[in-house]
Inverse folding.
């Protein structure tokens, strides 16, 4: 069973330093929208809008034989975001609730439902930031922004330890390891070029067939061990290549791309993943600044295995950076 759950108020609580504009925090300005009965606030020409929508599901992780618990990720990320300071006064932020799928539930229906709400939010002028949940959330997000014009080109930039290019097996169905293969299949059927870039790939976490498939697709990738300062120009080159060839983009961050010291609370931790340092954040902002991103996905925050909310707080800091970058008029260092 899959269903929509309106936003709750108990996740957005925190310290209050006053009501003056320069001391406000996110929990004081977030607006709650029940998408089943109304649309988000109308944005004026001077406003930017972001909408957080949760995907409370790790059925795809269970099917993929991973450790479950990421269904509680959206609540943990919201709580970590609540105390963040407001940096731009003309950014409208809304909480659009959750799509929920319980263990053994209809994952495919949940992904379809998420796609419908992402499409609605995008049509209302908001950048959807989807809080996962297992990485099966990426296919749900894609369904909301899937290109329909054959002359368009679609790109996906995925910070991840895994390619997630596994073929869907009829006996298993969609999983957390299949979303980008599904995007490729969709684009092939629509005769739409699909540009895929994976950054942070772990050699020991992907089979040889997945590397061969990426090569066959002409999909560039960056190994986690090569995510270093001396590779900065090369990485910017490959990122710019995907962005330049794409009319629309999905940006996905699977939290297992980071070393376990930074992100212990994930479904598949990597002891030697990348660091969420200034270089990583530069790339993140660079992609958002392209103005081509139609949906952002944060996946695999698993509170069951988190330590001192470290992973949720890291995810919240990424939300902060993306909200900053989404405000194209904000003075923000590149």
């Amino acid at each position: 069973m899959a269903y929509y759950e309106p936003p709750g108020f108990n996740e957005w609580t925190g310290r209050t330093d006053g009501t003056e504009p320069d001391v406000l925090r996110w929990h004081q300005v977030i607006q709650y929208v029940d998408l089943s009965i109304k649309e988000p606030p109308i944005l004026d020409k001077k406003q930017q809008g972001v909408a957080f929508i949760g995907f409370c599901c790790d059925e795809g992780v269970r099917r993929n034989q991973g450790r479950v618990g990421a269904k509680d990720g959206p609540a943990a990320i919201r709580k970590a975001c609540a105390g963040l300071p407001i940096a731009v006064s003309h950014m409208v932020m809304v909480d659009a609730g959750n799509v929920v799928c319980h263990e053994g539930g209809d994952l495919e229906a949940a992904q379809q439902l998420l796609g419908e709400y992402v499409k609605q939010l995008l049509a209302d002028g908001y950048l959807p930031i989807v809080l996962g949940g297992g990485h099966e959330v990426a296919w749900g997000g894609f369904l909301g922004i899937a290109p329909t014009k054959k002359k368009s080109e679609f790109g996906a930039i995925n910070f991840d330890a895994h390619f997630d290019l596994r073929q869907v097996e009829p006996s298993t169905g969609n999983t957390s390891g299949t979303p980008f293969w599904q995007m490729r299949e969709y684009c092939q059927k629509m005769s739409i070029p699909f540009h895929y870039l994976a950054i942070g790939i772990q050699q020991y976490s992907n089979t040889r067939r997945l590397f061969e498939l990426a090569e066959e697709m002409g999909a560039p990738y960056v190994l986690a061990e090569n995510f270093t300062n001396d590779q900065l120009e090369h990485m910017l080159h490959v990122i710019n290549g995907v962005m330049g060839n794409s009319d629309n983009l999905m940006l996905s961050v699977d939290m297992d791309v980071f070393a376990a010291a930074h992100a212990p609370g994930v479904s598949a931790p990597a002891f030697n993943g990348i660091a969420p340092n200034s270089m990583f954040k530069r790339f993140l902002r660079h992609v958002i600044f392209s103005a081509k991103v139609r949906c952002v996905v944060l996946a695999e925050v698993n509170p069951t295995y988190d330590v001192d909310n470290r992973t949720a707080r890291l995810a919240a800091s990424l939300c902060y950076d993306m909200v900053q970058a989404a405000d194209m008029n904000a003075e923000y260092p590149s």
The CA atoms of residues 259 and 272 lie 5 Å apart. Strands lie at 2-5, 31-32, 48-56, 91-101, 127-132, 154-159, 194-201, 221-223, 248-254, 293-299. The mean pLDDT is 94.
